[in-house]
């Protein structure tokens, strides 16, 4: 009888241990605060915004690049200011992103400290919020939020600026199904809309082919519910989701949009 009681106790204990939630798997963070450099998901894919990091409303007729000229920054000049929460050290990180655009576009896309201009980006540093941006110039003040985990990932920092310059995610292109397969069953419930694509009647990809290497492409595990891939490339050798820097194609599309 005693033996039975002990084994029942052990079984109960084992089930408690099994049921207890373990520490979060560092490869699959659910929030930006859980993000580490080992994560398989990018910082900009962890926000609660539309597609993770896009502030609504969307500009009309938007797919990968916005066609309507009103959503572009005049002459490629973007005015900005930092909110008061930015340290000089963090400002330098954002300015490194600005320099990346300026040098890769041959001084065509430039950022300028605001002195009273009506249209501008305010950079905010709110660690209780995800990385996010609007798509294109909205008119008046618009924000890009850079929590610490976004400032620490250069490609994500650059990614948010690319949204503000007028682009969507690469896998939103109408021709994406020829290049990637969306694994709908692996997507976290309620996040399916993050994998929308836009019709070919909307805008072109500025003459460029689908770019697996774009800084605007989701990673393979974005919004995964089960640790399985949500995006599988048709080309088995392709890798997606880099957040190192702008790809050559990203630069060409931007220069085409802004008539550089
Ligand atoms: Zn994004």
Automatic annotation (TrEMBL):
Pfam families attached to this UniProt entry: Astacin (PF01400)
GO biological process: proteolysis
Binding site for Zn(2+): 159, 163, 169
Keyword Signal: yes
Domain Peptidase M12A, residue spans: 64-260
Gene Ontology MF term list: metalloendopeptidase activity; zinc ion binding
Active-site positions on this chain: 160
Name of this protein: Metalloendopeptidase
Gene: nas-4_0
């Amino acid at each position: 009888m005693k033996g039975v009681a002990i084994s029942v106790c052990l079984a109960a204990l084992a089930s408690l241990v099994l049921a207890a939630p373990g520490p979060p798997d560092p490869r699959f963070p659910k929030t930006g605060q859980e993000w580490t450099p080992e994560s398989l998901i990018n910082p900009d894919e962890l926000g609660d915004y539309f597609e993770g990091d896009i502030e609504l409303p969307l500009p009309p007729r938007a797919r990968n690049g916005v066609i309507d000229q009103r959503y572009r920054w005049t002459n490629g000049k973007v005015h900005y200011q930092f909110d008061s929460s930015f340290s000089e050290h963090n400002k330098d990180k954002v300015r490194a992103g600005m320099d990346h655009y300026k040098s890769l576009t041959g001084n065509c896309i430039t950022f300028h400290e605001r002195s009273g201009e009506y249209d501008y980006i305010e950079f905010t540093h709110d660690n209780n919020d995800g990385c996010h941006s609007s798509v294109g110039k909205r008119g008046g003040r618009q924000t890009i939020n850079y929590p610490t985990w976004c400032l620490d990932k250069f490609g994500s920092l650059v990614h948010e600026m690319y949204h503000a310059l007028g682009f969507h995610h690469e896998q939103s292109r109408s021709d994406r199904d020829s290049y990637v397969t969306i694994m709908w069953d692996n997507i976290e419930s309620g996040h399916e809309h993050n994998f929308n694509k836009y019709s070919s009647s909307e805008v072109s990809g500025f003459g460029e082919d689908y770019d697996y290497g774009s800084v605007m492409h989701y990673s393979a595990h974005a919004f995964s519910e089960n640790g399985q891939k949500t995006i599988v490339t048709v080309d088995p050798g392709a890798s997606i989701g880099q957040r190192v820097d702008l790809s050559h194609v990203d630069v060409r599309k931007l220069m085409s949009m802004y008539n550089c």
